[in-house]
Write a structure and sequence with these properties.
By secondary structure, the protein is an all-alpha fold. Among the domains are: 42-121, Cytochrome c-like domain (Cytochrome Bc1 Complex, Chain D, domain 2), CATH 1.10.760.10; 131-216, Cytochrome Bc1 Complex, Chain D, domain 2 (Orthogonal Bundle). It has helices spanning 10-33, 42-55, 57-60, 77-86, 108-121, 140-150, 152-155, 178-187, 202-216, 231-257; strands spanning 162-163, 169-170.
């Protein structure tokens, strides 16, 4: 009776084929599920590098590796650059605890070039597509719940912003647009944590964006908004108004008693 023996390399061949097939299937699914990002040209990357060397390297280093004056930009992605430079926070006018939003120093094409260059240094969050910030079909109620759970402790329940520790602050979101909100969530500017898609899903991000847009157009049908800064502001307003009314009444009573 003949005894068949497997070749010693047979097991490794089977494993190699299985791993290769699994990897190819995963890559195909990931390519279909991932949003399509704009591919930067070599010319745009070169332009961005030149702009970076001129306006950013003094703080972030010649190779964007970071320094004592600025963090490394390797792996932050194009979304962080688009948010920071597009809002005028970068380049900073001078050393400070927190970058302040101001008039941008670059035009649209220059910002895109800077973003393309930084994105070429390492993988990171990309500038969102129109579909990624489209809130059509989003859940407003869920957006409010998510915002109060994840954002209100810094930006306040009314999204008007608030003070943080060590002189930092959370800015008001009343003038922000969907792209700004998305880029801030995925890049975590200043003291803000990063809310990746594992923490807040793309669908939940749309819910939050829809909720913020509703806050921005809320006209306070119940009366004065008092800045929507919360119960402390409202209580102070009532206290001051009540004391003023009591003083007027006291003066009037005193004048009548004479």
């Amino acid at each position: 009776m003949a005894i068949s023996r497997r070749h010693p390399a047979a097991l490794f061949a089977v494993l190699a084929v299985a791993l290769g097939t699994t990897g190819a299937a995963y890559a195909a699914v990931s390519a279909q599920a991932a949003p399509k990002a704009t591919v930067a040209s070599a010319t745009q990357v070169d332009q961005g590098k030149q702009l970076f060397l001129e306006g950013c390297s003094s703080c972030h280093g010649m190779a964007a590796q970071g320094s004592s004056d600025g963090p490394s930009l390797i792996g932050v992605g194009s979304a962080a650059v688009d948010f920071q430079v597009g809002s005028g926070r970068m380049p900073m006018a001078g050393p400070g605890i927190q970058a302040v939003a101001r008039k941008t120093q670059y035009n649209t094409s220059e910002i895109a070039a800077l973003a393309a260059y930084v994105a070429s240094l390492g993988p990171g969050p990309s500038i969102p597509t129109a579909e990624m910030v489209n809130t059509s079909g989003a859940d407003l109620a869920m957006g409010g719940e998510l915002f109060r759970t994840n954002c209100a402790q810094c930006h306040s329940a009314s999204a008007k912003g608030g003070a943080l520790s060590q002189g930092r602050w959370a800015p008001s979101l009343m003038n922000s647009n969907n792209k700004d909100v998305y880029e801030a969530m995925v890049s975590g500017p200043q003291s803000m944590p990063v809310f990746s898609d594992k923490t807040i899903t793309p669908s939940e991000k749309k819910d939050i964006m829809l909720y913020l847009s509703e806050l921005q157009k809320n006209e306070s049908p119940g009366g004065f908004s008092l800045g929507r800064l919360g119960a402390v502001t409202e209580g102070l307003f009532i206290f001051v108004g009540g004391m003023a009314a009591l003083m007027i009444v006291a003066v009037w009573i005193g004048a009548r008693a004479r």
